[in-house]
Design goal:
Length: about 80
């Protein structure tokens, strides 16, 4: 039986503004993270990551205004 060691899943989050090592940032999906520049560079070189789907949706919808909420009628 040939088994490979399990890989660690890395989720890349999206932010705005400059990336400063050690700085705490708020991602588009609402996560508070501390920037690890060396770790980020290592992950970018391997390509073993996924982009947070909530960050992607928030980024795409950032420029779309929220419609006013209305109570609809039942009859």
């Amino acid at each position: 039986m040939n088994t490979k060691p399990a890989k660690t899943l890395v989720t890349a989050h999206m932010i705005t503004g400059p990336v400063v090592n050690g700085q705490e940032v708020l991602t588009f999906c609402g996560q508070h993270l501390t920037i690890d520049a060396q770790g980020t560079e290592n992950i970018n070189q391997t390509g073993d990551y996924i982009v947070c789907p909530l960050c992607e949706v928030a980024y795409e919808l950032a420029d779309i205004p929220v419609p006013p909420l209305e109570q609809g009628s039942l009859f």
